[in-house]
Amino acid sequence: xxxxxxxxxxxLGGRRFNRRDFLKMGGAGLAGATLLGAxxxxxxxxxxxxxxxxxxxxxxxxxxxxxxxxxxxxNNDISAxxxxxxxxxxxxxxxxxxxxxxxxxxxxxxxxxxxxxxQFAANSYIIDLSDRFTESMRSKFLQGPxxxxxxxxxxxxxPWFTDAGLLYYRKDxxxxxxxxxxxxxxxxxxxxxxxxxxxxxxxxxxxxxGAEYEGGTVNGLEYINSYGGSVxxxxxxxxxxxxxxxxxxxxxxxxxxVSDGVAPQAVSTYAEPECEAPFLGGDAIFCRNWPxxxxxxxxxxxxxxxxxxxxxxxxxxxxxxxxxxxGWNFFINAFADPEAQDAAWEFVKFMTAPEQQKFYSxxxxxxxxxxxxxxxxxxxxxxxxxxxxxxxxxxxVPRPVSPVYSDMSLQMAEQFNASLGGDASPQxxxxxxxxxxxxxxxxxxx
Length: 446
Ligand code: GLC
Prior knowledge:
Layout: H1 19-25, E1 51-56, H2 63-74, E2 79-84, H3 89-101, E3 109-113, H4 117-122, H5 135-138, H6 143-148, E4 150-151, E5 154-155, E6 158-164, E7 166-170, H7 171-176, H8 186-200, E8 204-207, H9 214-226, E9 232-233, E10 236-240, H10 245-259, H11 272-280, E11 284-289, E12 308-311, E13 323-332, H12 338-352, H13 354-364, E14 367-368, H14 377-382, H15 384-391, E15 396-397, H16 405-421, H17 426-443
Parallel strand pairs: 1-2, 1-3, 8-11, 13-15
Antiparallel strand pairs: 3-13, 4-5, 6-13, 6-14, 7-11, 7-12, 9-10
Helix pairs in contact: 9-10, 9-16, 10-16, 16-17
The protein binds alpha-D-glucopyranose (GLC).
Residues 89, 113-115, 163, 214-215, 218, 272, 290, 326-328 line the site of alpha-D-glucopyranose.
């Protein structure tokens, strides 16, 4: 059963992008906005001493710190300091919201999730960059990420890197078992995993992000979407459509990974970092993760990159392969000192310039946001996700677009986790979500 969407605009929640769209649009999801109380007043936080503070979560490859060091070497007047924020995007968001509500300008620049800009812009927590990030600059970036930073016609963020869910697999083990390629359906993934676990004694078949947090929402949605389910009506974002046999089939497939012994029960507590050790440590055959994980292969006691490869995520029965879309952007704090904001802009220009984006992509296997870098031979050679973006990331789905997305996500994370952990049946989780999400949607400003 294939879903059909007849969306009015590209901003609709369930819309999928094909490969051409992905390259054209850059694959970033379009974020929803939640109104979080009164808008802040902006303004200064004292005299600027030349130091800007940049917020971002964990950067496992070490490449971000290298770029910050390069920037500091090249600049006499400005120095950038990284404030390490939570790697869990939901916790990072909560921390920022608290700071913004206190009109705290100490974090000058925010490396932030693709699902945030509209929400922060609506509350005047971040500044309008339309005059700085000019149309001619924007035209060099993938269109999707730019759109995801645009709110009511103004652009509030500069796309730094984009993200899409991938299937990592053990090339060596699949070859040895005689499989001609990675699985293209979830059922096939289970079959391959079960056979290899039996023949080779590999501990886990599949690991992914099943914990109760934003990443759990993305993973659950990938199953639901890959079976043809949707969260919102693509023609009417105020209508919740999650209660369908397709959505239930999606969560059943996810739950069966655990109940059929392919994924460990503990997967319901895993975020991205918890997936690295089992897969890169050689204990798992398959792993769902973002492009960044590839750069960790071969480091410390992790297996070599030659033993692994990546593929599009498997399709649901009667559905299609679907990748959740992510990505990170730079936002300037509206409460920071105006001089610090100017200095932050210098840092943004440095970080998103072709040379630094290339360095970042090569160092951490990230998907760049400058279109031209998708044709860069060196990047194509060493960043497999870039190759896949051109060839195989056919269906990328943004998270539901709604002014109340962050509230919806909390409910989805809870129910998807309950279903995965066996605390609710997939049908129960979906039925609860239908009611909960509809009541949140009903409160959304129209
Ligand atoms: C990745 C994505 C981001 C998403 C997060 C969930 O960092 O880029 O968009 O929200 O994972 O854990």
